[in-house]
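By way of example, we now present a protein record of this kind:
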Amino acid sequence: MTVLIPFTMLTRPTLCWVCILVLGGILVGCAPKGRYHHHRDSAPKIVPEHVTTIDALPVYEDYAPANMRPYTIRGVTYRPLTTGKGFSEQGLASWYGQKFHGHLTANGEIYNMYEMSAAHKTLPLPSFARVTNLTNGKQVVVRINDRGPFHLNRVVDLSYAAAAKLDILKTGVGKVKVDVIHVAKDGNVTIGNTPVIQPTTAPSVSKNSLSTRYIQVLASSRAQKIPAIAKRLTDTFGLPTKTLESGRIFKLRLGPLPEHLDSLSILNKLATMGYPDGFVVSE
């Protein structure tokens, strides 16, 4: 049976303790919560072998509508840009790691500090950007899928892997330049405010014209499986495919590859998809 004690019967010492407990509960309930209110972060105690050094691969992706709305953090309202095309800025880059590893990003994805990603306050999500360390000239291409950093003078928050490649883990911050790599639906690419000249796929009458790069993904005698694989490749990389027949062997090629794309990054990605024997060819 529960016995209720009238408030007026409490002694002064007991009353003081009750007040302290109630007030403490109120303060805890009003304390800031959420991932943006954490102030301490850290690198992993044991660095695994699977930390990537491969840049993110810029492809066309639709912006997430939910991340185009204004939002408020710590009393400051931020208004996301409608496009990242032509965007460049300089400032300090920081990085975030273990505290947020495995948690949802603002884009609704799982943050993996061992992949090439980053956070930005106002760029549309997702976006791709080239980040240059202005101190040592090192560069990294990241996929921006999160919001932050919400600190004065900081323009981008890098994943642990991206910070490692730029060599700013020890210093914690570094002066950088951020250039958005904007890939349009038609395949046109702009880095910062500079358009990237795409290689032409039209045949040229000049014998000295430059070849067009492709990646031969596989060669198989099973023609029926080629269309499904080709669709998967196009969905993943945003690039066309072509199939060449030689005898009874069907060669599936990805491309042509735009000038800005690093073939090594694509080959590494293909290996993780189960196609480790790909190689670059020219036509």
Remarks:
- The mean pLDDT is 79.
